[in-house]
Write a structure and sequence with these properties.
This protein is mainly alpha-helical. The chain has two domains: 20-93, no CATH class; 97-264, MetI-like fold, CATH 1.10.3720. The chain has helices spanning 2-29, 34-42, 47-57, 63-75, 89-93, 97-124, 129-143, 146-161, 174-208, 211-218, 223-248, 250-260, 266-275, 279-307.
């Protein structure tokens, strides 16, 4: 286990370093910087003033120096300053982080709460009405983009209820905030739960054909015990893998839905930062997303050994 942890730690640093280089390079490939955007919006470009702004922001330095300045700051806990607000980047990110975490947690909750039970039900009722109906619904969910579903929800709410389920900047308590976030969470979770339903169904069908399941039935075990204690327990590994992938990519998936529902989270803020070429904010948010992916994959690997004792991470 010790050697495995060392390898994973080294892989973590290599991955984060590679992602940081890619992020930094791609942001500089995009034409223009915040100084160009500011002057273009005014319709007049003062080259002297533009050069002064670039010097103040450090944009006139060589790219290598800019990169190592950013990485060196991260190592010391300095996340830089936002070009848009001229405030520390961390003070802009932290207030928005809880909103995105709550939305992501709700999305995962709905994904698991609907995906796994419906997948088991579909497998148990194979080729029946329930199974065929769920297969049509899940296939439709996988075919529909989340932003399109979100826009449909907004239009339906306006025409039927005469209201727009937009997140309020001043929610009345935690439960009120979660209630406001539940609609966009359901929209995002609709597609994720469809993936879980289909994977759970296929994994369950494979396990239900095993000899030990027939033995359990021959011993008189109830269908509930067979389905949830014997079958699901042995079919859960690929489901955990997919849940880990979905969880690690939530920030990217929430970018669009936060914009559609006007949710002041990290996703919408990332869109604004990209539009204004706010390099410190974009770089830190994408690096945070990469960090979440690596950590989530590590947790999934550890869960494998907990759920299935046959899996060993030996030295």
């Amino acid at each position: 286990m010790g050697a495995y942890l060392i390898r994973r730690t080294l892989l973590f640093f290599v991955t984060v370093l590679g992602v940081s280089i890619i992020i930094f390079s791609l942001m500089r490939v995009v034409p223009g910087n915040i100084a160009d955007i500011l002057f273009e919006s005014s319709g007049y470009i003062d080259q002297v003033q533009k050069a002064k702004i670039e010097a103040e922001l450090g944009l006139d330095k060589p790219l290598v120096q800019q990169y190592f300045g950013w990485i060196g700051g991260l190592v010391k806990g300095d996340f830089g300053f936002s070009y848009m607000s001229e405030r520390p980047a961390i003070s802009e990110i932290l207030p928005r982080l809880p909103v995105t975490l709550k939305l992501g947690a709700l999305t995962l909750f709905f994904t698991i709460a609907f995906g796994i039970p419906l997948g088991v039900w579909s497998a148990v009722k194979q080729n029946g009405l329930v199974d065929n109906t769920l297969r049509v619904i899940t296939l439709s969910a996988l075919s529909l983009p989340s932003f399109w579903c979100g826009l449909l929800v907004l239009m339906f709410s306006v025409h039927v209820f005469g209201m727009i389920p937009i997140y309020s900047n001043e929610p009345r308590g935690l439960w009120h905030e979660l209630a406001l976030l539940s609609i966009p969470a359901l929209v995002v979770g609709f597609r994720s739960s469809a993936l879980i339903v289909r994977l759970t169904r296929s994994s369950m069908l494979e396990v239900l054909r095993q000899d030990y399941i027939r033995t359990a039935r021959a011993k008189g075990a109830s269908e509930k015990t067979i389905n949830y204690h014997h079958a699901l327990k042995n079919a859960v590994l690929p489901i955990i893998t997919l849940l880990g992938i979905e969880a690690s990519h939530l920030l990217g998936g929430l970018v669009v839905i936060e914009t559609v529902f006007n949710i002041p989270g990290l996703g919408r803020y990332l869109v604004e930062a990209i539009r204004w070429r706010d390099y410190p904010i974009v770089q830190n948010l994408v690096l945070f997303s990469a960090f979440a992916v690596v950590i989530t994959n590590f947790i999934v690997d550890m869960l494998y050994a907990v759920i299935d004792p046959r899996i060993k991470y030996s030295d």
